[in-house]
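Protein modeling request. Please complete all fields; requests missing the sequence field cannot be processed.
Requester role: graduate student
Desired output: 3D structure, token encoding
Chains: 1
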Amino acid sequence: MFKYTLGILFLANMAHADIIKCSFTEPFYDTEYSMAQQKLTVSDFEGTTKSIRNVSFQIKGPGQFELWDSSGNVLQKLNLTNEGSNGMSDFVYPYEVESSDLVYGSGANNGIGGCTSNFLHRKEQSDE
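Delivered output (128 residues):
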């Protein structure tokens, strides 16, 4: 029963996560997904911006999500682990993300990054 209740509370919080922002290094780029607009915006280090429209948010399992384009291609895989990293900063992100080449060509970090949402923010990495 506890797991069931926890899952419902988690999904209720996700329903309010209107914006998911992801950060990547090597190459440096950011993505921002708007659930309301069903749009993924990609901005790179040169200031180039592109938008991918009709992007759906898929719940794959507990803490596992995917962003799909209108053809059903996976654009990003997100995992809520509270161990995400953009590959370079001293921040820990709530989400780990793997971005496909359809979003941005792969670089040294192979499309691996970290994400935040409206209610889940990055934290300063602690020395434990």
